[in-house]
Amino acid sequence: VRWMMYWIVFALFMTTETFTDLLISWLPFYYEVKMAFVIWLLSPYTRGASLLYRRFVHPTLARREKDIDAFLVRARERGYETALSFGKRGLNLAATAAVQAATK
C-alpha cells in the first residue's frame, strides 16, 4: 500500500512538473528542491507520499468515485463497441481479399 501511495503521488507530481517546469525551472535551487521533495516522498521516516495521498489524493478520489465509475463503464462499453467494429472491418477486408484472390 505504501508503494502504491508513493507511485500515485509521484505520477501526479511528474505530470504537474511537466507543465510547470518551463515556468519555474529558472528559480534558484529549483532542481535541489525538486530532488529533496522526491526524497521526502520516498523516505520511510517522513512518509511524505502517504501524508499527501491521505490528505489530498484519497479525499479527491472518494468525492469523485461515482464519476470515475461512470467513466470506466462508458470506456468499457466504447472499447467493446470499437473491438466489434474493428473485428467486422477485419472480417470484411479478409472476405474481400479472399474473393479477389479466388477470382484471379
UniProtKB/TrEMBL annotation:
It is found in: Endoplasmic reticulum membrane; Membrane. Coiled coil: none annotated. Its main location: endoplasmic reticulum. Keywords: Cell cycle, Cell division, Endoplasmic reticulum, Membrane, Microtubule, Mitosis, Transmembrane, Transmembrane helix. GO terms for cellular component: cytoplasmic microtubule; endoplasmic reticulum membrane; endoplasmic reticulum tubular network. InterPro entries: TB2_DP1_HVA22. The chain crosses the membrane at residues 7-29. It is a multi-pass membrane protein. Pfam families: TB2_DP1_HVA22 (PF03134). GO terms for molecular function: microtubule binding. One of its GO terms (biological process) is cell division. Belongs to the DP1 family. This is Receptor expression-enhancing protein. It comes from Pheucticus melanocephalus (Black-headed grosbeak). The gene is Reep4.
